[in-house]
Amino acid sequence: MNRRYSSSGTAVTPASEWQVDPDTHTWARQQGHLDRLGQDGLAAADAKWRAHRAGFKPRSAGAWAADWRSWIAREHAPGRPKLYAVPGSGTTQPSGMTLAEAHTAALLAALDEPTGSE
Description:
Blueprint: E1 4-5, E2 11-12, H1 22-30, H2 33-53, H3 61-74, H4 99-112
Antiparallel strand pairs: 1-2
């Protein structure tokens, strides 16, 4: 293996060389992330994570696993719209509203809907 060692003796590796271990894969399946993203979506999320972490300093396998799990838990299924807007991103709904405006409009519309108990 091509691992570097820190002065503390803990094995560290760059993100590009870190591999999803069986425990992390089991976590993704048990938490529903594999079902939610699908195999292709999980692979795409992994590639995206590696691209974003490419410049990070090498870490221990446990640190990468925790970081990867956090990333996967936040990742969206391919083709599914994000449920939030990034400020300044210009993300809008087909109606011309931002995601935040559309969400507020949906909440206000829900207040006006009859509950069926009237």
